[in-house]
Structures are given as structure tokens and as C-alpha cells.
Design a protein that fits this description.
130 residues, hypothetical protein PF0899 fold, four-stranded mixed beta sheet, Hydrogenase maturation factor HypA, nickel
């Protein structure tokens, strides 16, 4: 299950960002998962729950958003591939609807931390880091 290694990488990024902002805990984490990334969002959430145990993100709220594939072709076409509902299975072979060439995905094929919230120095506020 590669989701666990992705989750531990996310925890490393979160820990580093939180430390850079002087935080000793993380309140929330937002992760974007591309539909063509070959990452299962439900499994990633489970793995993140385990990977954050005993860390500064142990009590953080997890929000996992899915991102639809978006790509472009050398012929000038750009948009969402027609096979986006099956992008997980067909990501290596997404074809341009205009010329049938392989398209280059610009969105929806990765997994990244979009935002994390840490307590600010003022105890009544939360600092959000994009």
C-alpha cells in the first residue's frame, strides 16, 4: 500500500511547515489528491490517521479533496479528458479528443498538501499556511 509512504511524506511536510511557523501542534490539514494519481483517498485518510499518531498533527482535522484531471495537447486542445471518470485506470494513456495524441496532464495526477492550520501566537486565532 503506497498510500502509507505518501502519508508519512505528508506528515514530514506538515511537521516541517508547522515548525517553521513556530507551532507545536497542527489544527487541520488539507490534501489534494488527483483522480489520476493512483492514490486512493480513503486509504490515504486512514494512513494519515495512523501516520499522525504521536506527532504535532495527532489531533488535526484531515480534509482530502479530489482534483479532476486537466490536460493539454500539442495540437492546442486543453480540457478535462473524456475518460476522467476512469482516469485512475487509464492515466498513462489519456488521449486528446481532437487528434488522439497523448495529452500532458497539468492537474489531477498528483498528491500535495494544500493548506495546514496552526494556532497563532494569539490563542484565539488560527494561522493558515497555503
Amino acid at each position: 500500500m503506497h498510500e502509507f509512504s505518501i502519508a508519512t511524506g505528508i506528515v514530514d511536510v506538515v511537521r516541517e511547515e508547522a515548525t517553521d511557523h513556530g507551532a507545536d501542534r497542527v489544527e487541520s490539514i488539507t490534501v489534494a489528491v488527483g483522480e489520476a494519481s493512483h492514490v486512493n483517498p480513503e486509504q490515504l485518510e486512514t494512513c494519515l490517521t495512523v501516520a499522525t499518531e504521536d506527532t504535532i498533527a495527532a489531533d488535526a482535522t484531515l480534509d482530502i479533496e479530489t482534483v479532476e484531471p486537466y490536460g493539454s495537447c500539442s495540437c492546442g486542445w486543453a480540457g478535462r479528458p473524456e475518460t476522467s471518470d476512469r482516469a485512475l485506470a487509464y492515466a498513462p494513456d489519456l488521449r486528446c479528443p481532437e487528434c488522439e495524441a497523448r495529452i500532458d496532464l497539468e492537474e489531477g495526477d498528483g498528491c500535495r498538501v494544500m493548506e495546514l492550520a496552526v494556532p497563532s501566537e494569539d490563542a484565539d486565532e488560527t494561522e493558515t499556511t497555503p
